[in-house]
Amino acid sequence: MTAAPPPTASELVRFSAVAIPLAAAGLPLGVYLPAIYARDYGLSLTTIGLVFLLGRLWDAVSDPLIGTLSDRTRTIHGRRKPWIAGGGAVFALASIFLFFPPFGVTPLSLGLVLFFFYLGWTAVQIPFQAWGGEVSGDYHQRTRIATYQTVVTASALLLTLILPTIADQIRPGDGRLQLSLMGGLVLASIVPALLSTLTALREPPLPALPVARPRVRETVAAVVGEPLLLRVLASDFAVTLAQHIRAALIVFFVSFYMGRPEWAGGLFLFQFVFGIFAGPIWLRIGRRFGKHRTAVAGELVQVAINLSLLFVTPQTFGLLLALTLAQGLAQGAGNLMLRAIVADVADKHRLESGDDRTGLFYSVFSLAGKGATAAAVGIALPLVSWLGFDPKASNSAEALDGLLLVFAIGPAVAHSLSAALIARFPLDEAAHSEIRRRLDRDSPDLAFAE
């Protein structure tokens, strides 16, 4: 059959819209909510940390479960859309209680809200990412689709970062107001975003459903037995680890090492402004050199930027601004390319096994990123503390130098590891084109948009 034309820019913007409420909720969840719940609602940091940890453990179960179930879903509306619609409803309801909590919040009530919040989030995010990998079977079109998702996400993150600043201008230090503004963005965008995503594109035809139901052991074996997927997961774990080591320490670095606490939030915002332009730049590079080579190049650029931080001093704030600008333009290159590669690996797996596990592969890809986020905090904060840094005390020059070393070298090492893991990746454009040719020959009714 004749392949459908590639989706237009307008269609891809509409399709990517659901990334707005997901991003708008994700940033406060990791940065603002713990502090606000502790300061304004009276929960202890230990309790909050434990509840959020249990939520992440729940992710370890729900991500691959929903990925596998969405792969096997068969409805007249497709297999991804019902999950996105149902998950969006749960996500919206849980967001009301999370961002507009009643008085008298307890650990149990917070735990229940987070349970349903993470469930709804996963039910939207995993099928959405898998669907994005299925929109086209073309090697470069997949990078283009992932780029639109990345740019929309970066734009939503930028807007979300602005809201606490606005709240501080209205009522400084009012955590409830900050929470209300950020929650308002989530709730105002969720319904239009869902409608936009669900109506922007048609799902591709459904592949044949295997007769036997997958078992847990078989599902794990499918992941562990796919070495190219494991390389992609490890590479993305490393790049995400690098990004969140930097995120965990940037406020301390700017406030204490640079002595510019007034820039602690602004510098993060400055980076995201230029991050919006990063996606199209790396898309062009990816078209020229291929995904894995572009991922390697992006990671090596990040290594150079982070090592250059070693030359920053409190007197060279301009150099820090320049490196932050470069960081913004380079950020996400690895994540973007690796996300697009997951769909290519899923094609290879389907050709070899006959099973379509795109949703499962994207679920473990998401899980690897979440694990790296948690690991970054668990590595960076104890390490700088061991080196003598204490945000509650007067720090010696040696302690501040230790903070600088971890802030600069930690991400540089992780980015280097990410590049090494994905270098010489065998599934390039030529290899993937052959896989697509054989898949389309064996299942001509499943031709993708090229």
Identify the notable features of this structure and list them briefly.
mainly alpha; Growth Hormone, Chain: A; disordered C terminus; 77% helix; 450 residues; 2 domains; 18 helices
How would you summarize what this structure contains?
It comes from Sphingopyxis indica. With 450 residues, this protein is an all-alpha fold. The protein is built from 18 helices and no strands.
Describe the structure.
The chain crosses the membrane at residues 12-35, 41-61, 82-100, 106-124, 145-167, 179-201, 263-283, 359-384, 404-427. Belongs to the sodium:galactoside symporter (TC 2.A.2) family. It comes from Sphingopyxis indica. Keywords: Membrane, Transmembrane, Transmembrane helix. This is Na+/melibiose symporter. The chain has 450 residues and is mostly helical. It folds into 2 domains: 9-201, Growth Hormone, Chain: A (Up-down Bundle), CATH 1.20.1250; 226-443, Up-down Bundle (Growth Hormone, Chain: A). It is built from 18 helices and no strands. The protein has helices at residues 9-15, 19-31, 33-41, 45-72, 81-99, 107-134, 139-170, 175-200, 216-224, 227-257, 264-275, 278-289, 291-308, 317-330, 333-353, 358-386, 397-422, 429-442. α5 (81-99) packs antiparallel against α8 (175-200). The chain is globular and about 70 Å long. The two termini are 12 Å apart.
Any chance you could write out the topology, listing elements then pairs?
Blueprint: H1 9-15, H2 19-31, H3 33-41, H4 45-72, H5 81-99, H6 107-134, H7 139-170, H8 175-200, H9 216-224, H10 227-257, H11 264-275, H12 278-289, H13 291-308, H14 317-330, H15 333-353, H16 358-386, H17 397-422, H18 429-442
Helix pairs in contact: 1-7, 1-8, 2-7, 2-8, 4-6, 4-16, 5-6, 5-8, 6-16, 7-8, 7-11, 7-12, 7-15, 10-11, 10-15, 10-16, 10-17, 11-14, 12-13, 13-14, 13-15, 13-17, 15-16, 15-18, 16-17
GO molecular function, one term: symporter activity
Family: Belongs to the sodium:galactoside symporter (TC 2.A.2) family.
Transmembrane segments: 12-35, 41-61, 82-100, 106-124, 145-167, 179-201, 263-283, 359-384, 404-427
